[in-house]
Amino acid sequence: MNADPGRGPFNVGEAARLSNVSAKMVRHYESLGLLPAVARTDAGYRQYTGKEVHTLRFIRRARDLGFSMAEIGELLALWQNRRRSSSSVKKIASEHVAALDAKMAEMAAMRKTLQHLVHCCHGDERPDCPILDELAGE
After folding, report:
1. Which residue from 9, 14, 47, 134 lies 20 to 30 Å from 104 (Cα-Cα)?
2. Per-residue pLDDT tens for 4-25?
3. In this structure, are 123 and 74 located in the same domain?
4. Do residues 45 and 9 make contact, with C-beta atoms less than 8 angstroms apart?
């Protein structure tokens, strides 16, 4: 469901539903400054516009790709700056890809070690276990 930027205001629950972000995370993003403080009713309820819902969707997509909150803050600033250089955006994304590659290599090494340990463990009634020995540093 798309939010019409001219439509609203939306309460936090509606904004959360429209952006596929929990209400708790909407408030969290606002507290981090990723989402600007929004207007409030006389009773103190937050009122979001289509613009904030669009920003929440941006944050959600960035989180889905594994960007950190700091990276999302940088990307949001670049997204909102029409005078930005796309090279700045590409640099952030490229660094994130490199970090993902490093994490994947680290996880592949962990998997290989665990596969070896599982293979070496008899998995029977004996108390000796190479998996526990490895964890204990023996």
Report:
1. 134
2. 555 779 999 999 999 999 999 9
3. no
4. no
